[in-house]
Amino acid sequence: MPARLSAAIVTYRPDLALLQRTLATLAGAALRAREAGELSEASLFLVDNGPDSASAAVRETLAAWPSELGPAHFVTGHGNVGYGRGNNLVLPGLASDVHLVLNPDVELDRDALAAGLRTLREHPDVGLVAPDVHAPSGEREFLCRRPPTVWVLFLRGFAPAFLRRRFAADLARYEMRDTLGDRLVKGVPIASGCFQLVRTPLFARLGGFDPRYFMYFEDYDFSLRVARESSIAFEPAARIVHHGGGAARKGVRHLAWFFASGFKFFSRHGWRWR
Q1: Cα separation, 36 vs 213, whole angstroms
Q2: Which listed site, 24, 78, 105, 271, has its alpha carbon 20 to 30 Å from 149?
Q3: What's the number of domains the chain is made of?
């Protein structure tokens, strides 16, 4: 039976042109999934964590959402409550079979949703589907991960280039480069929060994201909790382009959030140094 889909995008002062591309490609992928018989309807939740003075411009991006797919909801006025809390605001309004957590800087391939929904339909043991992520340049980004260590996070985000080259094998193992390719892979430990296609009952049962993470590591924590109840699968046919960047390139405030959330993550799931 075709799935009912809900999708949530949390924004804070977004690049409006990029957000429009995200919404346009999401709509295109949803229409394609409906044509393929994998989707019956799709509801959209645009959650704006930004100031009220900027919310009107964000709301206007919803005008392009095809009404024949389903309703589009705009959630605002709650302030900057963080990425996880922002996503959790939609929980009471979900009546879907499958829920998509999506960043506002992602472009979906036309067949991305059809492929992800098909994987969930054909594999009842899979609770969450992670996509094949590419940079705008076309280079593959390995965003499915093994559980991190403090060492590998330092290497990836803060180490000089010569040190990253010296320990490239450590980074490759963390990024599952030995495993991910052109086939479905089950048992992925961690899936990036830029695109998480999850069964709605599972998302609701877990209470969504842990609100103690303001930003960063909420997707790692959520993935580990999902993996205790079902399998996370990498689906190479679900392809997206991700325009995002790491915390180390976003300034002091993002670094502070990264370190605070990293401390919470390791304190909860165990400190692994090397």
Answers
A1: 37
A2: 105
A3: 1
